[in-house]
Backbone:
């Protein structure tokens, strides 16, 4: 196992709700690799979840922020830079929520105020975070920003609803801001397209158990776990990936390149036995 990959680096990790969260696993791995960080989430998620336990375990500070509020984000970046005595090195955007998915509203009957909320929380928040850090010049040169995405940005998966649209926008924002941030401040911006993962947000997707099983059978290496996602993201925060930017990187056991797999067909034919 590599050691001290993030020694001397500090950042902000958004989206750790409980010990199932992908952001929680990233925080644990980043801590193991000697990074310092602030943990952020909404006031209600801080109350309902267990982020304080993670903060105790990793010696980090929790600062509440709704990632759709630029005032909250300004305050968060100001406080974070005060804690670390200057600019930081990495940001994780691990934020997603769709009121339409949550309420089981089908894509054909979508409620538009809900749709706007989905886009604001799950995609525009990525732009808002980067706009705030860019104008405050909060990231050091060769800093790294990562957001979590899903293959529903490219391919239609029934049940994923308006989150597919949100992920397409998220990935596009990653490329657009990645260009400017790279050109002006030598900061990397990437999205990681992760396998379906049994977390609180993941469990909200209709038919998640079937999706997990199907995806496991389709992927030659099987589904990637949250812990494996954390390993990959820590690598993207490190100095070993300094010229990787504006990419959507699939971390999905090969799923996104598959058309059909024997294991999926076998299961399909069994259902006729
Ligand atoms: N679980 C999966 O199957 C899967 C697969 C691919 C990508 N992802 C993505 O990974 C990311 C993390 O999700 P997760 O699966 O760890 O679930 P999770 O439920 O643990 O995390 C989602 C987080 O978003 C936070 N959040 C919601 N609204 C917010 C707001 N307004 N401001 C700040 N934070 C807010 C929640 O409080 C929560 O901590 C999401 O972007 C999700 O779409 C998940």
Residues:
């Amino acid at each position: 196992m590599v050691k001290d990959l993030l020694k001397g680096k500090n950042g902000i990790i958004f989206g750790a709700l409980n010990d199932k969260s992908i952001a929680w696993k990233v925080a644990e791995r980043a801590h193991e690799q000697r990074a310092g960080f602030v943990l952020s989430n909404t006031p209600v998620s801080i109350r309902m979840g267990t982020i304080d336990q993670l903060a105790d375990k990793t010696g980090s500070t929790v600062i509440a922020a709704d990632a759709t509020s630029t005032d909250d984000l300004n305050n968060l970046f100001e406080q974070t830079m005060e804690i670390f005595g200057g600019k930081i090195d990495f940001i994780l955007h691990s934020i997603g929520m769709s009121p339409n998915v949550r309420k089981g509203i089908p894509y054909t009957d979508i409620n538009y105020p809900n749709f706007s909320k989905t886009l604001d929380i799950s995609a525009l928040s990525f732009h808002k975070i980067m706009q705030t850090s860019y104008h405050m010049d909060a990231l050091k040169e060769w800093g790294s920003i990562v957001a979590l995405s899903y293959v529903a940005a490219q391919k239609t998966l029934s049940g994923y609803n308006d989150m597919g649209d949100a992920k397409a926008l998220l990935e596009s924002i990653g490329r657009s801001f990645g260009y400017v941030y790279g050109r002006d401040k030598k900061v990397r911006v990437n999205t990681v397209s992760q396998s379906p993962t049994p977390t609180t947000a993941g469990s909200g997707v209709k038919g998640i158990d079937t999706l997990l099983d199907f995806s496991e059978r389709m992927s030659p290496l099987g589904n990637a776990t949250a812990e494996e996602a954390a390993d990959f993201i820590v690598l993207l925060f490190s100095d070993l990936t300094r010229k990787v930017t504006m990419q959507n990187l699939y971390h999905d056991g090969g799923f996104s390149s598959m058309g059909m797999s024997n294991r999926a067909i076998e299961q399909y034919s069994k259902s006729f036995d």
